[in-house]
Amino acid sequence: MKILRLLAAMLTVGLCFSPEVRGQADSINQTNEYAMAWNATGYTFNAKGKIVATNVNQRAFVLKAAQDNGLNPNDLVFVYRVEKRDTAVVYKSTGAFVADVYQMQYTYTDITNASGEFALRETLLNDEYHNNAIGTTWGVENAVRNKDSYLTSYSYHGTFHYFFPEDNVIFTGSFSTGPRVKETDPPN
Prior knowledge:
By secondary structure, this protein is mainly beta. It has helices at 2-10, 24-28, 58-69; strands at 33-45, 51-57, 76-81, 86-91, 97-103, 108-112, 118-125, 135-145, 151-164, 169-181. It has one domain. Strand 1 and strand 2 (51-57) form a beta hairpin. It is globular. The N and C termini lie far apart (36 Å).
């Protein structure tokens, strides 16, 4: 029963909007969204004092958002939104926003190379259900832009750890971006 509660807590997905948009997205009124793999293992203790582990991936976020909004999960995808520095569930076909998941835009440090193409990034990880950060991410970003500053190639991968103190569980894992999700609807 505790594992089900922990999973439910980890999957809590709600609506939250981030006003931070910069660069290319400002000039063409869209957000660069990339499908994201998110592989987490949650650790806690059972009633007998033994460590219990559960595995969760990005599909869990999609299923929860679909259930909460009465949508078909096959129409949705979990993404990293580059300009907003957060993760969300959006429609695969249009990139239209469905639900926010985790935010990384509030406190972060980027160390970039001279061309600005590569960044090493450490962030605090937030969600809308906790007043304080719930963890951190560390990753490597590769953002290639053309002469007009439009993003032509993008990848971001790394590791994370976070916790839900109310459920006595710690999650750790890795993330990586995949293909761009074409956005045809205006961003939130």
